[in-house]
Amino acid sequence: MHRSKPRPDLRVTKSSTKTISEGACERSRAPFDFGLAARSCLVGASLFFGLTACATNAAADPAVTAASPSPIEQFQAKEARLFEIGYRLGTANASYCDNGQPSLGLLLHDVRAYGQAEAIRSLLGLRGDIGVQAVAQGSPAQLAGIRQNDTLLAIDGQEIEDRPDTRKDWQRAAKLRDTIDASAGDGSVMLAWIDASGTRTEATLLPVSSCASTFELLSGDDGAAADGTRVLVGESFPGFAYTDEEFAAVLAHEMAHNLLGHIPYLAENGKGDMRARNSERDADRLMPWLLANAGYDPAAATRMMQRFGPRHGGGLLRRRTHDGWDERVEFIATEVSKIEKFRQEITGLSVDWRTNFEPFLKID
Ligand SMILES: [Zn+2]
Predict the structure, then answer these.
(1) How far is the CA of 241 from the centre of ligand 1 (A)?
(2) Which domains does the chain possess?
(3) 97 CA from centroid of ligand 1 (Å)
(4) What is the distance in A from the centroid of ligand 1 to the CA of 279?
(5) Could you say which DSSP state residue 144 is in?
(6) Residue 89 and which of 79, 134, 195, 239 are 20 to 30 A apart at CA?
(7) Is the pTM value of this prediction over 0.70?
């Protein structure tokens, strides 16, 4: 396994308490590839902080339970879908990524980071503060029997409540993540959790390899972007209405930026001389390869662009860094043909883009 910095899927917010108290509306830190020029109530924040910062967010009243899912549950469903598809893309392509990370397929959250922790604990049926936000299909976490809205109790035999370094603030989740990261990097993590009925279970989880890119849902945004290590998707992103494979295509485009090292390269060398445009072309062109390995139809990348492009990718909103959507479709279709040819010649479903994909943007 290639490892740069082990980072399993325990995704926590990295925002500061300053952001919470200010609740200021700022531009997102990463330019959106998909979606319009959205303004965000929060920068790089998740629901946990979005609840407190965006006063108009309907999720601010999590105790309201009607027949339809509450905003909290809707957010959880979106985050679980994002996490599921991201896990699938990341693990299926792990053998071709330069940088990998161990993954448990487990996404945790800390209810203390919400504005109304007790109400959210009650709504989700949690028995403690550290809830299971999502478990990916076929992941080590699922195979161990962990389910959404179970509650994490202990890591490597140490009860979370007894940990001296876990103050009940936003830093706690980050510290728990680091603890799990460290154990996963050593090859295994022992977790104890409790379900809604009160049954406690303990198991040792063996992480699997994944490409080094996490997937995070942002409150108050409607775009999708990559920042080098994370794929960031706004909760109002139109792609949530797409089929799984077309939504996966968007995520694959953003993940491609991270896998191909575009973000630090452009930051260091600038976006001129076709560098930004070629990075976009390469992210588009790698999409179908990433999809194919994850078991999605690679042509879904073409369909996504045909759906998204006419509505969002042309006219006044077109940016100079991106080709027109019809040109993007052509670039993607060329790669889809290559993949189909490759599959006819090579036995097996996996397509080695590390060897067979030729980037326009040359990064050493
Ligand atoms: Zn892009």
Answers:
(1) 20
(2) 17-210 (2.30.42.10), 242-356 (no CATH)
(3) 18
(4) 7
(5) T
(6) 195
(7) yes
